[in-house]
Design brief:
single chain, four-stranded mixed sheet, 10 helices, 10 strands
Length: 335
């Protein structure tokens, strides 16, 4: 969305009102082109944001699409034999020696940039994380959840009870994507990037024949086969509502592991902001009573977003203030 006229200006207006900024994952798309090429694309955007961020702490939380941002620090933790904790925050010095995150620090010279992974505590005690670990429990058969379930089965693990456990399962997937982005052709990367979108569009689109063949025949058959192989379990239902419901159930399991004592957990990943007016509040609470919030996204997913009334409409900002309820604001809706 930031390539569209006027959108950066709306984001800048919001950033000026903030005391601290947390970029909650998938800030960079590092799975669709080599790092050097991607940095050339995004540098002008960050340089336009730099004045609004000047003098403010900025925390960068890697997600599944930019997990590589954290590699310099995660690698040091592995070399030291330290298991990954649920809360980590490292200062990012400017310069290429510190990977893509160091490049971002160079473009934001008047901000103190830190890298937090897999999450961090905000000023009001809310635990914030991108939320990609939920793919391990997501019953919607997206490519990410299929891959996570398969790798988990291959790992021989019986469950995940810590951030280190989740990372042991998910990091090989992210490493594969990072390596592929550096070596594969542009055409191959483009096909991979649109795979889930294409399947979703055919299963839920306007074409009756395609919707029947994909949504009513192919997907149920594939899901049944995967479930028999004990990869999953998955549901054959592909709708935005099911993605919201299943995503919240999955995130609740992750929240109970990463932040069992938090009163609130803020995540993104599934692109569906919430809770929104009209949502079932019970869906947005874990069994332990933790309140879940989703920060939405800044990517227009045309496969299931018809107009700006959609709960998946991009442009959401989560405002966190000590002593006040977390507030969601959409900077890109016309009203």
């Amino acid at each position: 969305m930031l390539r569209r006229p006027g959108v950066v200006e709306r984001l800048v207006d919001a950033l000026r009102r903030a005391d601290r900024v947390v970029l909650l994952g998938d800030t960079l798309e590092l799975r669709e082109r080599p790092v050097a090429a991607l940095l050339g694309v995004v540098r002008p955007i960050f340089e336009r944001l730099a004045p609004a961020l000047a003098g403010k702490p900025v925390a960068l939380v890697p997600g599944n699409h930019d997990h590589q941002l954290g590699e310099p620090w995660l690698g040091r933790e592995r070399l030291a034999g330290r298991p990954l904790a649920a809360e980590n925050e490292w200062r990012v010095p400017p310069g290429d020696d510190h990977g893509p995150a160091g490049a971002l620090a160079s473009w934001l010279p008047r901000s103190e940039l830190t890298l937090a992974y897999p999450g961090l505590r905000l000023e009001d005690g809310t635990y914030a994380t991108h939320g990609q670990y939920l793919d391990l429990y997501l019953t919607v058969p997206r490519v990410e959840s299929l891959t996570a379930s398969a790798v988990f089965r291959l790992s021989g693990r019986e469950g995940c009870s810590s951030a280190a456990d989740y990372e042991a399962v998910m990091a090989p997937i992210y490493g594969f994507h990072a390596g592929l982005a550096e070596g594969a052709t542009g055409a191959a990367l483009a096909r991979g990037a649109t795979l889930s979108r294409s399947v979703w569009g055919r299963a839920t689109g306007d074409g009756r024949l395609a919707r029947f063949l994909v949504g009513q025949v192919t997907i149920p058959a594939v899901v049944a086969a995967l479930n028999r192989l004990k990869i999953g379990p998955f549901s054959p239902v592909l709708t935005g509502e099911e993605l919201r419901r299943a995503g919240l159930v999955a995130m609740a399991r992750v929240a109970d592991v990463l932040a069992p004592d938090a009163s609130a957990v803020l995540f993104g990943h599934t692109h569906r902001a919430g809770p929104l007016p009209g949502d079932d509040e019970a869906e947005w609470r874990t069994l332990a009573g933790t309140q879940l919030y989703n920060s939405g996204n800044w990517y227009l997913e045309s496969a299931f977003v018809r107009d700006e009334r959609s709960p998946y409409w991009p442009g959401t900002i989560a405002w966190v203030s000590r002593g006040e309820p977390l507030r969601l604001e959409n900077a890109l809706r016309s009203a």
